[in-house]
Amino acid sequence: MRKYVKDMVDYGTSFVIDASTIENAYGTYRALLMGKFRECTEIMLGKNITVCIASLAKSEIEVLAPEQLMAICGALGMGRSDARRALSENRSIISKQ
Question: Do 41 and 17 meet the contact criterion of CB atoms below 8 Å apart?
Answer without folding.
Answer: yes
